[in-house]
Specification:
The complex is a heterotrimer of chains A (118), B (352) and C (490).
Chain A (H helix, E strand, L loop, with lengths): L1 H18 L3 H22 L23 H32 L4 H14 L1
Chain B lengths: L1 H8 L5 H23 L3 H21 L3 H26 L11 H21 L11 H4 L1 H13 L4 H9 L1 H22 L8 H6 L1 H4 L6 H21 L8 H18 L8 H27 L8 H4 L3 H42 L1
Chain C lengths: L10 H16 L4 H25 L2 E4 L10 E4 L1 H28 L5 H20 L3 H20 L6 H30 L4 H8 L5 H19 L7 H8 L2 H26 L7 H24 L4 H22 L2 H28 L19 H15 L5 H16 L4 H23 L14 H20 L1 H16 L3
Antiparallel strand pairs in C: 1-2
Helix pairs in contact in C: 1-2, 1-4, 2-3, 3-4, 3-10, 3-13, 3-17, 4-5, 4-10, 5-6, 5-10, 6-8, 6-9, 8-10, 9-12, 10-12, 10-13, 11-12, 11-16, 12-13, 12-16, 13-14, 13-15, 13-17, 13-18, 14-16, 14-17, 15-16
The chains are: A mainly alpha (118), B mainly alpha (352), C mainly alpha (490).
């Protein structure tokens, strides 16, 4: 069930990125796409009846832990996601300064006008 | 810690756990569909913050508390703050969008085909929650069994993060630092000099203070700061570490700046100071790597610091401090740069 | 204080990162520290080539853990060749950037600009040397984020918009790569490349592996710029500052080509059911891109856009060569990659030189630019002729080898090489005619002594091409050896 939801979120994220005109909404779609991949990795590491992988001194020998490796990888991925979001926000502000709008089609038409007149 | 372990062991494979997870997953799908259809940026931002909170709850149900904390602090708090500030800086809320148009329908069908192919392939994945899948049995078992022996700390996530795959964490800190450098490089500019009389006219509007912020500031923020320092220092024993602590401290300061939106305060000096802090944080990490090399070992071989397992504890402690400083200063610096821009933009619009 | 000699293996990456972090704190101008760091890295790359020749491969694990449990850095013939290309190829760029950056970036922002360029280079080197699937992802993101920032620093009005498009497509590509290695991680349970190669050769999950290969390939192709994902490339190379476009030709895209070679020829198990159809699809996509790139390049009026479309064409030729996957074609792909990077970086630097006093770079209006500097003219002519694949330069030799290899496999694809050369011939003749043969009185370039440094960078690229041409036989032997090494694992 997890994996089906992962694929659905991937599809929705891609759909938002491809079809939205507003630049900020595209970034949020990209965030959904990346969140789906995070969900995929963490679902790989789940073990039924397991506790988080913190190994205390008096734990029984056959205690079940969930897998720590995907969690470490996804800490990195979350941070990469926010870094991309921050950089994209600064680009959007620069674009707004240059073109006075953040609608993709208006910006493309303004660029074409520039090329036409120069 | 003991309480949390007991809480989890009582969750055997019973219906309620599976139902809760599936409920959250369905909620995720609904929220993202709502984001796809919506036409107002404010609604989208609030929905995306809700999305991050549901993800954090899901991670907790899947026994991944480190990731849940990071997702809650970074995804729900900080990214929402960034998006709202850039909405203010570009002054956009409603936008036009035609959802049913020919290119959209074509891309919809292509995506549906792609999704079907992926679901068809995903059927072959190892069953969800299996104890002996390749992921859970090969490397993870080694890490879990050898963390108390080779590294000497309790949290195997912190052990992998700091020791076994320490270079990935160096790369991750570098990613944050680079994002900070890029935003600083693009957006640092001198404050626009404006006609002072017009500014004074707008002063009543801009110095707004919501009534509850005094209570939050006095009661909640100091507790959050103490909690953040606790998480930073106890990263080796409990879920936590540099990333979460840095993000929480940054959120505390972001709240402070949101509540006191004081236009008299010039932010340029503190932005420059935070930029230098972020470089210093990364330099702490890389200096630790070079230090271990100078001590006669490989890069990031903490064993070489003291010649015993204690070296790992010292090494991980110091690099977590470096990571915490970097992420705190970068997140706060980016927020302040966006605020700086938003204020200039608002003032310029008022003048016009 | 006893220093281990093995520590030299990751030294390049650590040195570049340390220099990048120190630059904005310490230096006001930034050029000297970055140049010294790149010079030391180039020296280490040459050293590593000799070491690999002697030992076959060298291995290093961070923290001295054993191989699948720690992160491995490895120099073997393929990675040492690409590391040398990236570091030696960026030396002329950093020489050029002494004045090039001064003219395009304002003074207070220069140290952070150099820091970003160093981080981009460090990220590219990290992808080449790291032998662990997830570390490669982290370094891809490092070089990408710095690349987005570098592109947005350009002076034209649409730089930020092109950087934004690049960000969207680049992040989707990197995320597909992450998804692909996630599926491989689910099937094998390991992330180290050699370990994964061993586990994949005995694995049976054919559907899943096919999807993971498609995802990884899709991610890498999005970042190279093959049709239909090529929309970002012309805008990015056009609106970035000139040292940045030159650096992209040398570092960013070559790294993706290295990644395709490494993953698909060396690590992944390609005996699964549908891989041949993926290969054919790749060949068709490359074919379409070559034709599209050539036609669009002919239609361009502005020199940087023309160079961008010709980059598109050349990279798709290289991908075509890789997808044929025989020893001769891989050797041809390697030679073409090396030759094309150096030539393209030289041409972008020349475009930057030309843009010094001019607002735009329309080819029709650029007569007689280099009238006063004969060495730069010679280097420029060498680069242009080499780009189009006319004999005697090494690009022609590379394309000839590709033609021979494609001929052996399947006759109908031979037309690609001929088409590419013809297109290249046409637009390079156009450039040479307009720029060189119409004399023009003295609308001079910046006539001070530091212009010499800018020209030195361009002359250096011309020299490199001449050296590679003179030693053409040696180059081809080395390429054949590397190809044999890569394909020998299968």
């Amino acid at each position: 069930m997890n994996y089906i939801v992962v694929v659905i979120l991937l599809m929705i994220g891609l759909f938002i990125v491809i079809t939205s005109r507003n630049l900020i909404k595209k970034i949020i779609g990209l965030g959904i796409f990346q969140a789906a991949i995070l969900l995929f990795y963490i679902s790989l590491g789940k073990v039924y009846k397991a506790v988080p992988p913190i190994i205390l001194a008096n734990d029984p020998v056959d205690k079940l832990y969930s897998s720590p490796l995907p969690q470490v990888l996804m800490l990195t991925a979350i941070v990469v996601g926010i870094a991309t979001l921050a950089v994209a926000m600064s680009f959007i502000i620069k674009i707004n300064e240059n073109f006075d709008s953040i609608d993709e089609e208006e910006i493309i038409s303004k660029i074409k006008e520039d090329e036409f007149t120069s | 810690m003991m309480l949390m372990n007991d809480l989890f062991t009582s969750f055997s494979i019973n219906i309620s756990e599976i139902c809760l997870e599936n409920f959250f997953l369905l909620l995720l799908v609904f929220v993202s569909c709502a984001i796809a259809v919506s036409r107002s940026l404010l609604k989208i931002v609030i929905l995306s913050s809700m999305f991050s909170m549901i993800m954090a709850a899901l991670y907790l149900l899947m026994a991944a508390p480190d990731v849940a904390m990071t997702e809650a602090a970074i995804g729900a708090c900080i990214s929402t703050a960034f998006i709202i500030k850039s909405m203010q800086a570009t002054n956009s809320n409603e936008f036009k969008q035609k959802l049913v148009s020919l290119p959209n329908i074509i891309s919809f069908f292509i995506i549906i085909i792609f999704g079907e192919v992926m679901i068809y392939a995903f059927i072959d994945l190892p069953e969800y929650g299996q104890t002996f899948s390749p992921v859970n049995s090969y490397l993870s078992q080694y890490y879990i069994q050898n963390t108390p022996v080779e590294i000497g700390i309790s949290s195997s996530v912190a052990a992998i993060l700091g020791s076994y795959r320490g270079f990935d964490t160096l790369g991750e800190t570098l990613v944050i630092m680079v994002a900070g450098i890029v935003v600083y490089f693009l957006m640092l500019q001198e404050k626009k000099e404006l006609d002072v009389s017009i500014y004074k006219q707008g002063e009543i509007i801009y110095q707004s203070k919501i009534w509850m912020t005094d209570y939050i500031r006095v009661i909640l923020l100091p507790i959050s700061l103490i909690f953040a320092f606790y998480i930073q220092v106890h990263g080796e024993i409990s879920p936590g570490g540099g990333f979460q602590a840095g993000a929480i401290i940054a959120s505390v300061y972001i709240f402070f700046y949101v509540a006191n939106n004081d236009h008299d305060h010039d932010l340029s000096n503190i932005i420059k100071l935070l930029f230098k802090f972020s470089l210093v944080g990364f330099l702490i990490y890389i200096s630790m790597a070079i230090f271990t090399a100078l001590m006669g070992g490989y890069f990031l071989q903490y064993y070489a610091i003291t010649g015993s397992i204690l070296g790992h504890k010292i090494g991980i402690f110091i690099i977590e401090i470096g990571v915490g400083i970097t992420i705190f200063s970068v997140m706060l610096m980016i927020f302040l740069l966006l605020t700086h821009y938003a204020r200039n933009f608002q003032m310029v619009r008022e003048v016009k | 204080m006893n220093l281990l000699v093995e520590n030299i293996i990751p030294m390049q990456v650590i040195l570049l990162l340390f220099a990048a972090a120190i630059l904005p704190l310490v230096s006001k101008r930034g050029w000297l520290i970055s140049f010294i760091a790149v010079y030391i890295c180039a020296f280490i790359s040459c050293l590593m080539i000799f070491v690999v020749k002697k030992f076959g491969y060298v291995n290093y694990v961070f923290g001295k853990f054993s191989v699948p449990y720690g992160i491995e850095f490895r120099f073997d013939p393929l990675s040492s060749a690409f590391a040398a290309l990236v570091t030696i190829g960026s030396l002329p760029i950093f020489i050029y950037s002494f004045l090039g950056v001064k003219l395009e970036i304002e003074k207070k922002k220069r140290p952070t600009f150099y820091a970003l360029m160093l981080i981009n280079l460090a990220g590219s080197l990290g992808v080449i040397i790291a032998h662990d699937l997830f570390t490669v992802y982290v370094f891809i993101e490092i070089s990408s984020i710095s690349a987005y920032g570098l592109v947005a620093a350009g002076k034209s009005r649409e730089s930020a918009f092109n950087a934004y498009n690049y960000l969207i497509i680049g992040t989707i590509g990197a995320s597909f790569y992450l998804l692909g290695i996630g599926i491989i991680f689910a099937v094998t349970g390991s992330l180290n490349m050699q370990d994964v190669a061993r586990l994949l050769s005995t694995s049976a999950a054919s559907n899943l592996l096919g999807i993971s290969y498609i995802c990884v390939l899709l991610g890498i192709l999005l970042k190279i710029g093959i049709f239909p994902f090529h929309s970002w490339m012309p805008g990015v190379l056009y609106s970035a500052p000139s040292p940045v476009s030159a650096l992209f030709s040398v570092a960013s895209t070559n790294v993706m080509i290295y990644l395709i070679m490494r993953l698909f020829l060396d690590i992944f198990n390609t005996d699964i059911a549908n891989f041949a159809s993926i290969q054919k699809l790749l060949m068709i996509m490359a074919f379409i891109t070559v034709i599209a790139g050539g036609v669009l390049a002919m239609m361009q009026k502005e020199i940087r856009k023309l160079l961008a479309y010709s980059s598109l064409m050349n990279y798709s030729l290289i991908i075509f060569a890789i997808s044929i996957a025989t020893k001769a074609s891989i050797a041809a792909a390697l030679v073409m990659t090396f030759a094309h990077s150096i030539v393209k970086s030289g041409l972008f630097m020349s475009a930057g030189l030309m843009s010094v006093r001019r607002p735009n770079l329309i080819i029709e209006e650029m007569p007689g630019t280099f009238a006063k500097s004969p060495w730069t003219t010679a280097a420029f002519v060498i680069n242009v002729i080499a780009l189009s694949g006319i004999p005697p330069f090494i690009n022609f030799l590379g394309k000839w080898q590709l033609l021979v290899a494609a001929f052996k496999e399947n006759k109908s694809f031979v037309t690609i090489g001929i088409l590419a050369t013809l297109f290249g011939l046409l637009y390079s003749l156009k450039i040479i005619d307009k720029i060189l043969f119409k004399p023009e009185p003295a609308s001079g370039l910046v006539a001070n002594s530091s212009q010499i440094l800018m020209e030195c960078g361009i002359i250096l690229t011309g020299l490199l091409i001449l050296i590679m041409t003179c030693f053409g036989g040696v180059c081809f032997d080395q390429a054949q050896q590397i190809a044999a090494f890569i394909l020998g694992k299968i």
